């Protein structure tokens, strides 16, 4: 999230594109029949309009270097599949949380645990996220399910929530009720822009929803954990 490389896109390409394709070609040469790749919802884009969702077969529209590198890796993997006959499955998760979660998700949980008041009591957005357990469950299914071959899937917990609702339910999972101050999202976005943190405000106030209907339909997959169960497991790691 804080690029220090002189050329971030090239740095991402070295790992996400060249590294991935090198591994895939070696896998195919070794007789591996199926290659499952964890991509990113950033291949679809950074945000959706509230009530609208990214679809698995949408035209890619990445907006940052990381998303571009993941898109290029997907494109390269499809070529490897055509050249070698090795099946490829692509999964694009949104924010992944669970036991040992880090970054902003962990920061928010620590704030809630300490009873810090947060100015996020009236955010009316919708965001999809996925627990680590649910993501791993889908990965395991994609290893062998016949219908998964050469498909792209989106994944989530199957429930979209606002930032405000997410924090309230985090608080319940932690056993520390969230102390939320209702400030308008527009005011938060303005303040964040002034201090150079517009991207943080976008993640907190903007929407990003994914549609997992294709995943459900082709694979018969249902997230085994609810959002509340996933948050409870994440809370146990603090």
Automatic annotation (TrEMBL):
A Pfam family in this protein? Epimerase
Database matches in SUPFAM superfamilies: NAD(P)-binding Rossmann-fold domains
Q: Which domain of life is it from?
A: Bacteria
What range(s) does the NAD-dependent epimerase/dehydratase domain occupy?
6-150
Protein name, UniProt field:
NAD-dependent epimerase/dehydratase domain-containing protein
